[in-house]
Amino acid sequence: MKFKIFLVTLCCFFMLISCKNNDSSVEDSETDSRLKTSESESPIQSKEIKDQSKTLSSSKTESKDSLEIVEGTYIKVGEESDSNCECYCLDLSFTSISDLCISPNKIYINVKYEKTNNNSINVYLTGPSNINSEGDKMPWDKFDKDLPIAMITLQNNGNLELDWLGFSIDDDLAIEYAIFGKKTLEGEFKKI
What we know:
With 192 residues, the chain is an alpha+beta fold.
């Protein structure tokens, strides 16, 4: 009886070893084929490919780094018919307060823009605009003025992308007012 158990154990052991060897031989053949492929390229071809890849990656970096957000008026892509800039424009200035429309012909806010680097800007609420026809019941004095309500990032094509974050009260998103500004402001803007 002990001899049968020994033989069964020995057979299982050999089967495990043979299966493991088959797996490693498959890996070895894959490695060999990869080596043969890379050996078929001459060292000159390999160097040229590396040089081209470095040139492409550095030109992408240079083009993004050479772009910088500039002051001026930007209009929302798709809303070019608002040529009078009544609601779908950004008047980007780093030295003065600007108006932003959050509800067409109804609610406007005053904001200041602060560059975080060459490629992005935080937008901060400073208060309601004096041209509002609605919005009297909004808690303007409770909205945080030190947290950004939007973030603007520079795109590779030179346009700006505005991401609406919403108003905050005591460092928390004011959910009942979060939708204001999202429809009119969020999206891509181009310089006019």
